[in-house]
Amino acid sequence: MLQNFDKIGYSELVGILDERNRCSGGIKSIHEVIINSRINDESKVLEIGSNTGFTSINIAYLSKSKVTGIDINETSVAMARKYASRNGLDHLVNFVVSSAENLPFPDELFDLVWASNVTSFISNKTKAVEEYLRVLKVGGTLSLIPIYYTKTPPDHLVDSVSKAIGAEIIIRNKENWKAFVEKGSSELGLSLELYYEKDFQYLDASDKIDEYVEMQISKPHLKKLNKTQLSVLEEKARYFYNLFNENLKYCGFSILLYQKRNEMDEKELFLTKSVVI
Prior knowledge:
Oligomer: single chain
Number of strands: 8
Strand content: 15-25%
Order of helices and strands: HHEHEHEEHEEHHEHHE
Structural class: alpha/beta
Helix content: 25-40%
CATH topology: Rossmann fold
CATH superfamily: Vaccinia Virus protein VP39
Largest sheet: 8 strands, mixed
Radius of gyration: 19 Å
CATH class: Alpha Beta
Shape: globular
């Protein structure tokens, strides 16, 4: 475990705390993706940026699919493996230390590639998307849950978030993210059919942060740390959670499901929208 906590970023903090780092929407988003991507006990799933294992474990719980989670942080991968073992899912879930820009898997292996919002953390986003699509089967689903800006944030806030996650934040809206992914697939000679799209907004979590921080730093595996180390971790956690909460006031997120195809269908003429009666 890292001892120089003063210099850690958010990704390292997640691993040290063994935080159940969730995708936006948490378990509800996982339910929606499983249902709408049609995965089952014969499916193979890859999660990009699995952190401490929350999404991979719950995909396995709910679908019985065989799931592989990859993350560049060794501490997070170690915690994810313990999480799988505690839940009796070692036979379904495997965690690997790997970069999304160079996936150690053969072409067209997975029925679902789950990338959530991790692409925001990756330096070479174009290469990462290329890798997602390389290992995804034709007919399989690319699941993205991007966080994007619905209002223009102040520059100092964007700079602080970029520093926290260790990657430059580019201000994108939802359509920017869609265009980026779709352009990447087109340049590879592939087609992505967007077949499911649902938008959400965030709630202010200001009144919950202190309690959440206390819960995180009170975990049994941290009792080996001294008071100074715990104090630094607490300060780091409170800083990051307040920073992200402030940033999310300017953001929304979407569940976007793309099907990988060899050929794109013609665009529809008569579009529809859902209505509330």
